[in-house]
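Incident log, support desk, overnight shift.

02:14 A customer reports that sequence design results differ from what the structure should imply. Their input is reproduced verbatim below. On-call engineer (initials T.W.) acknowledged and began investigating.
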């Protein structure tokens, strides 16, 4: 049971378009721990969410620093996370836990600042992933005036020559790169995308447009800066965009502090401009909706989250919906 289950239960909705096929390309799995702001979220919890009304047929696990190996070379310790998630994926693939295939794709962590020396780590992940390993995410979120994020990347990581060499090494292994960054870092990401055109890069959470700390109360200013930078990023054909993640506290919407969770209409109206601008410039064939659970569980439940997306796309064609909810993610992550 999550810490905020009673609060989440204050806002419930009927599932919209329950037949629409979904691949959720971004979720985590972790035990409840004191340093985590998001709730306990393991196999039982995600099974309850994907079985709650929406037609989720597959998911992609994204690294979150869990179940690392307790010993051995530091560079190889993140492979323990891939081993752990592959075990859960195998359980799901048995069919004994419902039709959805949890962690049909796995994205792990490797220290890309190792440059070309990261290749043995990539190979170890691929072997541990049982045919499910699809890519790397290296956290790069950094902003002056905000707490450091894992793995303490510092400013301008994307411009570091060793980091770029590590990303380039991924191409030979057919791996994609997920990016967790703040909106301030999008210009640096554009430079990285141009430096490694053969690597598919997936921008997570719109680049997290900040609304806390020095950016509190500056939503329109942040949006205008973000728009100009996203236009440049979208010009890189190797970059894809995940549509979601705005329920996390860093975006400053403050839903977690309300007396009751927002409904899907409120969430859609508050965030609509980010979704529509991204789809306009990337196109639906390079965009995919994501839950970012359990992080976004701080703001709403899983059913409400997907309902908010479906309200946004109510007038879209069947082909566009298929791309946004399933096909782009399934293609990019080779499911």
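02:41 Re-run completed on a clean worker. Output:
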């Amino acid at each position: 049971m999550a810490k905020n289950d009673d609060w989440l239960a204050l806002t419930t909705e009927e599932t919209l378009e329950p037949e629409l096929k979904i691949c959720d390309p971004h979720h985590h799995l972790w035990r409840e721990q004191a340093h985590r702001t998001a709730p306990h979220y393991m196999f039982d919890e995600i099974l309850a969410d994907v079985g709650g009304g929406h037609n989720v047929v597959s998911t992609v696990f994204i690294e979150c620093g869990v179940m690392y190996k307790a010993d051995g070379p530091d560079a190889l310790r993140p492979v323990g996370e891939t081993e752990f998630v592959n075990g859960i994926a195998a359980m799901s693939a048995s069919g004994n836990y419902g039709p959805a295939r949890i962690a049909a794709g796995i994205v792990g962590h490797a220290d890309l600042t190792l440059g070309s020396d990261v290749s043995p780590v990539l190979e170890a992940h691929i072997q541990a992933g049982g045919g499910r390993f699809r890519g790397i995410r290296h956290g790069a979120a950094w902003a002056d005036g905000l707490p450091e994020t894992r793995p303490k990347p510092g400013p301008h990581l994307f411009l570091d020559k060793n980091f770029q060499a590590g990303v380039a090494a991924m191409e030979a292994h057919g791996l994609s790169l997920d990016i967790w960054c703040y909106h301030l870092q999008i210009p640096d990401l554009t430079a990285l995308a141009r430096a490694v055109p053969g690597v598919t890069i997936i921008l997570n959470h719109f680049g997290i447009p900040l609304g806390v700390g020095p950016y509190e109360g500056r939503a329109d200013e942040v949006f205008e800066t973000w728009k100009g930078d996203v236009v440049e990023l979208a010009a890189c054909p190797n970059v894809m965009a995940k549509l979601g993640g705005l329920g996390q506290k860093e975006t400053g919407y403050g839903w977690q502090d309300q007396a009751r969770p927002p409904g899907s209409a409120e969430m859609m109206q508050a965030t609509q401009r980010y979704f529509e601008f991204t789809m306009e410039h990337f196109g639906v064939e390079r965009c995919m909706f994501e839950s970012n659970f359990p992080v976004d569980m701080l703001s709403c439940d899983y059913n409400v989250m997907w309902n908010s997306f479906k309200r946004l796309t109510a007038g879209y064609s069947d082909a566009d919906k298929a791309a946004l909810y399933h096909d782009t993610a399934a293609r990019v992550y080779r499911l």
